[in-house]
Specification:
The chain has about 130 residues and is mostly helical. The protein is built from four helices and no strands. Helix 1 runs antiparallel to helix 2 (about 40-65), helix 1 (about 5-35) packs antiparallel against helix 4 (about 105-125) and helix 3 packs antiparallel against helix 4 (about 105-125).
C-alpha cells in the first residue's frame, strides 16, 4: 500500500470537517423542529451532540487518520475533546436562543463556528496523534 502524503490527509480533514459540520448543523435543526415542543433546547443539544460526535469520530477514524484498532480508546479520547465542545455548544445554544432570542438557524451556525477550531486542534494533537 502506498503511503499517503501529509497534504492528502489535510485535504481529507477539510472534506470530513465540511461533512461533519453539515451533518451536525442539519441534525441540530431537524431535532429542534422535531423535539422543541417536548424537550428543552439543552436536551436537544445534548442529543444532537451524541449523534454528531459519533458520526465525526467514525469519519475521522476511517477517512482521515485511518488508524487501525483502538476503537474504544480513540472514541473515549474523542469524547474528551468533544465533551468540552459539547458543553460549550449546549451552553452557547441556550444563551443564544433563550437569552439572546436568536433564531435557531443563526444560533446553531455561530455555535459551530466557535467550536470547530478548538476541536480541530484537539483531534490533531490528542485523539488521533500519531506516534513519532
Amino acid at each position: 500500500m502506498l503511503k499517503k502524503l501529509p497534504h492528502t490527509r489535510s485535504a481529507r480533514y477539510l472534506i470530513a470537517g465540511a461533512w461533519n459540520t453539515t451533518f451536525g448543523y442539519g441534525i441540530g435543526i431537524a431535532l429542534y423542529f422535531l423535539l422543541a415542543d417536548y424537550l428543552h433546547i439543552t436536551l436537544i443539544g445534548i442529543i444532537c451532540n451524541l449523534i454528531s460526535i459519533t458520526m465525526s469520530f467514525t469519519i475521522y477514524k476511517l477517512f482521515v487518520f485511518e488508524t487501525q484498532g483502538n476503537w474504544l480508546h480513540e472514541y473515549v479520547k474523542s469524547y474528551l475533546v468533544y465533551g468540552a465542545m459539547a458543553v460549550l455548544s449546549v451552553l452557547l445554544l441556550w444563551i443564544f436562543v433563550d437569552f439572546g432570542r436568536m433564531n435557531i438557524w443563526l444560533a446553531q451556525a455561530l455555535t459551530i463556528l466557535l467550536t470547530v477550531a478548538i476541536s480541530y486542534l484537539g483531534h490533531k494533537t490528542f485523539t488521533f496523534k500519531m506516534p513519532n
